[in-house]
Amino acid sequence: MPEDKAPRQRTLYDVLGVPRTAKNTDIARAFNRLKADQQREDVSPDPRLMAQAQVAFDTLSDPDKRDAYDLSLARVASKSRVPMWSAIGVAIAVACGGGYFLAGRGKGMDAPKPLTREEVLQSVGPYVGELKGALMSGEVKVIGEAVVVAEDQMATSCKNFMPGAQLTMKVGDFSTTASLTRADEALDVCVLSVSSMGTAVPLRPNAPPPRAAVHAIVLDAAGKPQLRQASISGFIDDPKGPVMQIQSAVPLPNGTPVFDDQAKLAGIVTSPHAYGENMIVALPASRIVLAKNAAAAATSAPPERARPAEASAPAEKPSQDAKEAAAAELARPQANARKKAEEAHAKMIDEVEARDGK
């Protein structure tokens, strides 16, 4: 009788839906397509799938990591009587460096399972950058952190901006210029245009409840994202809507993004502020949505057309006397020129006759 084979577990290639022979361009295209599908309005976001896809992309797009991962698959496949699903699960965990066993989310669950700290960091860490401003004097100052909230758009608090400064954004090893698309001082949210940022992190529609655990993404001295555990200690009333008070064991710089346990952006830290000393305050993601929509409306609005000049009252028809006066005014220069020519001609004749008579 043929030997029963254990069901084959998905590999990182399966997560992205590409063959083992896929090129780097195919892997990047598949990853971007999966992210775009997850952000469609008619699709329920699956943060765990996105975390797995991020790990798959990071592993398969790096030649060294991909070689090591392929080698682990080959070693597992060469061993006899080893359940394929178990061995590949271990290989994926080793390749990802975070213990991911790529199983789909169970059906019938009322609430999604919270992501681990590593999954949150892998999912949203690559979308956090450091914003700096260069002054005319040559001095460069850190404005704060920013996070990708739309394609080629990042958001941060409007604090620490310097008039006339040249803005630069550093995300991982990638640095580029940035420009201020919209500064909403009332909401305290600034939207930046930054090229090559790709798709965005998912935004949470409402703030987490009090005492909820959240994850703050802080950049270290080398610009590498680090996860810091925090929590919502309460809310502060504000004319533009409540802001979140954050409890954290470490200071959080201006613009620090705060995520919930599904890797959805809950808010961004604003600092300095006037809500009280020794307090960490974050603006809810709902403010970012308002500022982002306003920026999109401003860039897509057609240019304002010039208003037509007000029609003036019809001019009255000139009278006959006015017409004759106008005609006489136009003829006056010609009459004067003719008179001068006649006088010059008569003078010339008089001179000739006087000379002949002598």
Q: So, CATH architecture of the largest domain?
A: Orthogonal Bundle
Count of distinct strands: 12
Question: In total, how many domains does the architecture comprise?
Answer: 3
> Widest sheet: strand order?
1-2-3-6-5-4
Number of helices: 8
Shape: elongated
Question: Would you kindly provide a written description of the structure presented here, covering whatever features stand out?
Answer:
The chain is an alpha+beta fold. It has 3 domains: 12-113, DnaJ domain (Helix Hairpins), CATH 1.10.287.110; 126-193, Thrombin, subunit H, CATH 2.40.10.10; 213-300, Thrombin, subunit H (Beta Barrel). Helices cover 35% and strands 23% of the residues. It has helices spanning 12-16, 24-38, 47-60, 63-78, 84-96, 117-124, 285-300, 320-357, and strands at 128-134, 140-150, 153-157, 166-171, 174-184, 189-193, 213-219, 225-236, 243-248, 257-259, 265-270, 280-284. Strands 1-2-3-6-5-4 form a 6-stranded antiparallel barrel. A 6-stranded antiparallel β-barrel has the order 7-8-9-12-11-10. 32% of the residues are buried. Mean pLDDT is 79; it is low at 1-7 and 80-109.
